[in-house]
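Q: what does this look like with S-adenosylmethionine bound?
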Amino acid sequence: MTWNPGQYLSYEHARMRPALDLLARIPLTAPGAIVDLGCGAGNVAQVLAARWPQARIVGVDSSGAMLATARDATLGDARFTWIEADLGAWTPETAPDLVFSNAALHWLNDHATLVPRLLAAVAAGGALAVQMPDNFAAPSHAALFEVATRPEWRDRLARCVRSNPVCPMTDYLRWLAAASAVDLWTTEYMHLLPGLDGGEHPVVAWMKGAALTPFLAALDDDARPRFIADYRERIAAAYPPLDDGRVPFPFRRRFVVAMR
Ligand SMILES: C[S@@+](CC[C@H](N)C(=O)[O-])C[C@H]1O[C@@H](n2cnc3c(N)ncnc32)[C@H](O)[C@@H]1O
């Protein structure tokens, strides 16, 4: 899967907001060791470093392109270590005080196994803090899955369609039974995406930086624009612009903070 840091970061401001909302609810004063799972381009890890300047931060991600951007942005800052690995298999060598993950764990299935495993990896007194998009039922995602399973596309794209890995809140409560305290919530943000020069629909541009990634990677250069055109048609109907050209884009996100 080929991630594009430039495309992803084009909505950095809107994508940073949930990371900041999660950060605000982590009741740790001075974690010494932090792991940022699915750290991407490292922009959120830099915010973690600003809040806890003494912390050592390990960012883990499977995308070499995202990690290259993270490394460039933190060159010479010995607090950061960047590791290329699959989160499904990765475990820390020593228990971190904070296991943090913003907008990444929804790429992994089987949260019933993943979530207790991550909590168990945290040092005593530490925290697991996670934010995940919970938007699979929204038109942005439903339209993607619907177009990908049409006869024209399903041979190449049906394997990219996933069921929602983000489960009901009560499941997370059960999976976090070993925690000394938990804080769970869902927020629906109303992003107002500016109109784009060149005419791309802003929701399509947003999705190109994230959920569309595996679909586009599965297509060749000829097919990709045709698939995007089919998807764009559905998205334009579902997300019309306001009179001023901005496009309202509601987006639900799930938050989990669990203390060891
Ligand atoms: C939407 S980006 C979020 C990046 C960053 N956490 C942020 O908030 O800006 C999701 C990241 O998760 C990474 N990712 C997805 N599945 C992964 C996996 N199985 N193992 C490691 N990283 C993964 C992707 O490479 C991507 O960089």
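The chain has a mean pLDDT of 95. The beta strands are 33-37, 56-61, 80-84, 98-102, 127-133, 181-193, 247-259.
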